[in-house]
Design brief:
- The protein has about 130 residues and is α+β, with helices and mostly antiparallel strands.
- It has a single domain (about 5-130), classed as Nuclear Transport Factor 2, Chain: A.
- Helices cover about 30% and strands about 40% of the residues.
- It contains four helices and six strands.
- The chain has helices at about 5-25, 25-30, 55-65, 75; strands at about 40-45, 50-55, 80-90, 95-100, 105-115, 120-130.
- Strands 2-1-6-5-4-3 form a six-stranded mixed beta sheet.
- Helix 1 (about 5-25) packs antiparallel against helix 2.
- The chain starts with a helix and ends with a strand.
């Protein structure tokens, strides 16, 4: 496959995440990852101390499942605008930058991906929340 074909295959993996996010379907999100122990990383600075939050995807989707029962949560009130900002492919490794834009904030995700047995999987996700002004 050429690079453009590989990017289209990666977009299919990212679409699984998008569909799972929009439909509160944890099974779709888990299909996008290489396994249920893949990690999600974010930075937090409680009390001025730098800290990295490391969350296994199987734990995150349990929290995600709880959100669908919270009608006041922004994820229930509005659908985000989703953009794939870029996909960079190097052989069987790739990275994608994705945005989930809500009225109050934007999630910016960086997915690291590997092609395993002819399919692209997210191996980990690093993200931050940017508050819209």
């Amino acid at each position: 496959m050429n690079i453009e074909q590989e990017k289209k295959e990666i977009e299919k993996t990212i679409q699984l995440f998008f569909d799972g996010f929009d439909n509160f379907d944890a099974s779709l999100i888990l299909q996008a990852f290489c396994n249920d122990k893949a990690k999600m990383y974010s930075a937090r600075e409680p009390s001025g101390k730098k800290k990295i939050n490391e969350t296994p995807v199987n734990y995150w989707v349990k929290i995600f499942d709880d959100v669908k029962n919270q009608p006041d949560n922004i994820w229930n009130k509005e659908k985000s605008i989703k953009n794939i900002v870029y996909i960079d492919v190097s052989g069987r490794a790739a990275q994608a930058k994705v945005e989930y834009i809500f009225s109050a904030y934007t999630y910016v995700d960086y997915y690291n991906l590997l092609k395993i047995e002819n399919r692209w999987y997210i191996t980990n996700k690093t993200f931050d929340t940017i508050y819209n002004e």
